[in-house]
């Protein structure tokens, strides 16, 4: 984002904080309704452009949002939306992307308030791995020609009775508006959930399943390196032969056998 959009996003986030009263039901409703607003904006380009048109006074854009969405969303959601559209955005897409992010944050706050944040983070990570391990499923969810409703229904069937409503809502939004790979979209959600708990996420590939003691030891080592608590998410990849590959943000620590063999091959070439 350019400077104008960064400032607009920060003010919109402040409005979200003020609108949420600490009740998980208010946060859940706000998150779901912000996603619904985004769905409308995705479908109606003229409205999307009008709400972010910096040639029009912010007060007029706020009034337009109240005419369109007033009475259809809760007061908390309307307060956030009114503040967001009144800001000056560098690009129309930045407004919509910020509304998505605020919806995600509201749902994660609801999960935290109800003591479900750990479970939601774990469910999102596992769902991302399931999709990544199934080329057919990943293709179906990544198909830009597939209607959004069809993708929502596919996620709903996949998670029916297996995940919380918050996880389902976040997952549906991730696949409908994905701008990166499915795996990256779910990793970003896991990172956002971890940030809510003031943690960072380590995405770990291991040749074999790790014991809880090994996970705890790895988390402790990474915490000493990065200076803050680390949530360790592990997926098993037998192709590594042995060892681990650890990714924290842009940092990659490759201690796998296949990684060592590849480095040796490059040295000998």
TrEMBL record:
Gene3D superfamilies according to UniProt: N-terminal domain of the delta subunit of the F1F0-ATP synthase
Transport as UniProt keyword: yes
Pfam families, per the entry: OSCP
InterPro entries membership: ATP_synth_OSCP/delta_N_sf (IPR026015), ATPase_OSCP/d_CS (IPR020781), ATPase_OSCP/dsu (IPR000711)
Protein name: ATP synthase subunit delta
Keyword list, A-Z: ATP synthesis, Cell membrane, CF(1), Hydrogen ion transport, Ion transport, Membrane, Transport
Transmembrane feature ranges: none
Xref: PANTHER family: ATP SYNTHASE DELTA CHAIN
Presence of keyword Nuclease: no
Function recorded in the entry: This protein is part of the stalk that links CF(0) to CF(1). It either transmits conformational changes from CF(0) to CF(1) or is implicated in proton conduction.
